[in-house]
Amino acid sequence: MTAIDPTAHLTAEQIEELGRELDAIRNEVIASRGEKDAAYIRRVISAQRKLELVSRGVLLFSFFPPAWLLGTAGLSVAKIMDNMEIGHNVLHGQWDWMRDPKIHSTTWEWDHVSPSDQWRHSHNELHHTYTNVIGKDNDLGYGIMRVDEDQKWHPLHLGQPLWNFINACFFEYGIAAYDLELGRNLHKRRRKNPEFRARAKAVGRKIRKQVLKDYVIHPLLSGPSFLTTLAATFTANLVRNVWSHSVIMCGHFPEGVQVFERRSIKGETRGQWYLRQMMGSANISGSRAMHFMTGNLSHQIEHHLFPDLPSNRYAEVAVKVRALFEKYELEYVTGPLPKQVFSAWHKVFRLSLPNKKPKVDAPDREQELVAA
Amino acid sequence: MITTPLLPSDYLDLVSPLRAGADLRGRIEAVHPETGDAATIVIRPGRGWRGHTAGQYVRIGVDVDGRRLWRAYSITSPTDRKDGRVTITVKAIPDGKVSNHLVRRAKPGTLVQLDQPTGDFVLPEAKPAKVLYLTAGSGITPVMGMLRDIEFDDVVMVHSAPQPQDVIFRNELHDLVAEKKLRLTEVHTDTDGVLDIARLDELVPDWAERETWACGPAGLLDAAEEFWSAHGVEERLHTERFRPGIVVAGDGGEVTFSATRRTVDADGATPLLDVGEEAGVLMPSGCRMGICFGCVTPLKAGAVRDLRTGEITEAEPGVLIQTCVSAAAGPCDIER
């Protein structure tokens, strides 16, 4: 958290004007959504399915090392496509406008242990609404880490580099636990809550199906390649987990990203909400292939401003959004993947140790606190 | 299990979308212009197609500008077409998204979504001795399906269109006339004016003895129903309407789509189907005029008004409403 508010130079009127300009960008895309966009997502879905089928087919012969390598690589990419460019974005409702019941946020299910409806709630409704608000947005350290100076230090945080590493490897389980709010719900009484139990059961069913597919049926079908296929599906899940964890860490943890206090969002206007999204997110720069593999979450700032615009349009939106950052003299946090990953990890290590409270005069600070 | 979280059909659809057991779809094979603003679409239906009865319509889901829109069109092909294809004949109406798309931009090879054919504007099992077809504009389409399907001994048709070149299927009709299979009166409304229903006495003196199928704009059908009733022969008249007659509106209210947890304000004149679609809710839809029941949805709470009659329906367990002709009448909760 910076002691100086990086948006202090903006007047209330300017913030609302900024909001109107962002609305205009959004409306432009909405008005021009059409056949090309629909063709894009259908192409991606079809490519993903074919890649997954072929890769799993190749893995039936995974005792042969080149087949193992090829199949594992293909399956990893297919799983990443399923979760990132397809699943995450479909579940955001980015493609609901097509009115195709097969590609709709309310009917989609993804290759992930967290059932899509639970993920939609915790991600779309909580994280995207309360982005980077301490105490409201559980994505800030997923409830197991301290990622801002203003979050209270606890001796458990000493281990957070290790927690983060484990979370990266088993990220989909971390997310399922997080969507269930396990930390909160495992407390004595809540455990018996029928609503929680129903959701926990749904997660259990989903895990069972996923595990059965990846670790039992597919290896069994491989016959003599049982063990190598098992290793392959495990590796593909690991690769997908570490990759998505890295991309998502880059969205909100790198240095330069702002976090906000609970009271700062009271009575927040549309313009202020936009501004919080702009200051609370970070992008990843890179090639088209890189953007694709991150599910266009490399355009995290644009995604947070317009979570329901089709992902294939973020690149063109980014040009206009960046121009607005310049116009309003705001910092557009972006960088190549390795740099951003390093920055996020650096923060995880740094904040595992306690720090001094930022030095500010309390009364002044209260008044100035738009984004602390 | 091996395909979780998808179904095996999600993969099979990639290669064989028209196979048996798949969701019913069809592939557009050709588009033949009929008049300046009408075209016949030849569709190869999927294996699950159960076949139609002459005069029936089919609900068809077409992706227009990437967005799936559903409409109902009469089937114009005979039931025993050798190649198994079916045709619909579509007239582009002003601002009609789907009709203009189908007539002017549809490309062979495109997949469309289909429903099984339905509708009770059909011929009876027992052949009537004398038949009258009373049609106007695109109202000729279900009747063409009948003409192509069954021959009667004595068939008269009175068809209205603005000008001769606007008469859909004109050549085929004239061939039937030449073969003495049909007696045809064309009314060209640009020059003759709209058909005065009383002129039937002069055009078809024995009209009251004929089993009659009428299809066209509401004005023609209303006049026909009145005319047939006045002569006490309304049981001989069968009609098919293409547009709803929306007459009644009232106060709207807050509409909750409980399954998707969305809430929006709606006025008392906008069909709930449109309200839901605007709000991004996945609404089933069909003819959009209150006949096909493709849009029925449970009403969980509150009240809705039937836009055709003004009738209020209140929520009770098991109450289903047609969202395409119902508007909010106060706050209501739709299960979508």
How would you describe what is shown here?
The complex is a heterodimer of chains A (372) and B (336). With 372 residues, chain A is mainly alpha-helical. Chain A has one domain. Chain A has 15 helices and no strands. In chain A, helix 4 (116-127) packs across helix 6 (171-179). The longest helix of chain A has 28 residues, at 194-221. Chain A is globular. Chain B is an alpha/beta fold and 336 residues long. Chain B folds into three domains: 8-114, Translation factors (Elongation Factor Tu (Ef-tu), domain 3, Beta Barrel), CATH 2.40.30.10; 130-240, Nucleotide-binding domain of ferredoxin-NADP reductase (FNR) module (Rossmann fold), CATH 3.40.50.80; 250-334, Beta-grasp domain (Ubiquitin-like (UB roll)), CATH 3.10.20.30. Helices cover 19% and strands 35% of the residues of chain B. Chain B has helices at 8-15, 97-105, 140-149, 170-178, 189-192, 200-203, 218-230, 272-278, and strands at residues 25-35, 38-45, 57-64, 67-74, 86-91, 111-114, 130-136, 154-161, 183-188, 211-215, 237-240, 250-257, 262-268, 296-306, 312-314, 320-322, 326-334. In chain B, the strands form three sheets. Chain B has a six-stranded antiparallel sheet with strand order 4-3-6-1-2-5. The radius of gyration of chain B is 22 Å and the shape is globular. Classes of the chains: A mainly alpha (372), B alpha/beta (336). At the A-B interface, helix 2 and helix 8 of A face helix 1 and strand 4 of B.
